[in-house]
Specification:
329 residues, mainly alpha, 2 domains, 13 helices, 0% strand, globular
């Protein structure tokens, strides 16, 4: 179980690093397509990849999970929140507000996820350590996002949309945790989520317009970023994120979102040659400190929980509950 937790933490970190670098690929593609065209086409590519990847599993699996209307409602809600609403709200917010504002506001998603998880998921409660980590991390996010520019301009409409994006992403994280109890593999449940996300995106593209120049795909400068966004940032990263949610829970996994502004500014400095100030460095230290506080649980708490479940499992003869415990230090 300890190795599984380490893997989940590693995948959550890699996922955030990739998601934090997607702005470069998106910026390149915005020269050829609109934001909604990029969004729809990248998820179509991601869905196709997941559909192909799930074929061998469906062939090997003799007994398919039983479908129900309740399950489909959960999948539809996950697709609506995590794919359609989140990305549309974030993209539209960027048209009304600054990237710094949006980056800071969206990073409050972990606290929303913690609130939802404590209300709707068993075994996930908000601790004082998590709240302290949240305050420290958000302080660092503000410094990194502003990067020495202490003038934070308020843009009510854009900032409200960014807050709504954080809210729906937190809802998505909790929904995915619920969905994982249905017995589907990570690839299959991610594919089904993408399907509903694309389905709900159709009315949006009908309103905003969808007229991509398909001849642009003859240019490697278009193909490579789309592969990165569609296969890497969408298909692979959503699957790895869902795996981390399954192992670590919505609260601990969502805390990795704190790192997104740090990754953004790091790659902006490397690729776009943007200057990193001492303020951003101080903010990075705060972000990492906040993440450490949010992720770390006391040795006493883990030991007590583990001992309690061991006793209960021994009495009932059920050892499955032991697999859901955090790794022991």
């Amino acid at each position: 179980m300890q190795n599984k937790n380490v893997l989940a933490h590693g995948l959550a970190l890699v996922t955030i690093i990739i998601w934090g670098t997607t702005f470069v690929a998106t910026k390149l593609l915005l020269e050829y397509f609109s934001a909604v065209e990029i969004l729809f086409m990248r998820f179509v590519l991601g869905y196709a990849a997941l559909a192909l990847a799930s074929v061998p599993e469906r062939i090997r699996q003799k007994k398919q999970p039983v479908r129900s209307v309740r399950q489909e409602i959960y999948f539809a809600a996950a697709g609506l929140t995590g794919v359609t609403f989140y990305f549309l709200l974030e993209n539209i917010a960027l048209t009304y507000s600054t990237a710094s504002n949006v980056g800071i506001i969206v990073a409050i998603a972990p606290i929303f996820a913690a609130l939802f998880a404590s209300l709707f998921l068993e075994g996930e409660k908000i601790s004082v350590r998590f709240l302290l980590g949240f305050v420290v991390a958000v302080s660092g996010i503000a410094l990194v996002s502003l990067n020495g520019n202490f003038l934070l301009k308020l843009n009510p409409l854009g900032d409200v949309l960014a807050a709504l994006a954080a809210l729906v992403w937190a809802a998505y994280s909790v929904l995915q945790k619920k969905i994982q109890a249905f017995g589907y593999s990570v690839i299959v449940l991610t594919r089904k989520t993408f399907f509903y996300g694309l389905l709900f995106m159709i009315p949006a593209i009908a309103i905003m317009g969808f007229h991509p120049d398909m001849q642009a795909f003859s240019d490697p400068k278009v193909i490579l970023p789309f592969i990165y966004l569609g296969l890497g940032a969408s298909a692979v990263c959503f699957a790895t994120w869902n795996f981390a949610l399954h192992v670590l829970g919505a609260m601990k996994t969502s805390a990795y979102i704190y790192l997104v502004p740090f990754v953004d500014i790091l790659f902006a400095s490397w690729i776009l040659k943007e200057k990193i100030t001492w303020v951003a460095i101080a903010g990075t230290i705060l972000i990492l400190s906040g993440l450490y506080l949010s992720e770390r649980r006391s040795r006493k708490t883990r030991s007590e929980v583990y001992a309690g479940v061991q006793t209960a499992s021994a009495e009932s003869g059920n050892t499955a509950d032991l697999e859901t415990l955090p790794d022991q230090e």
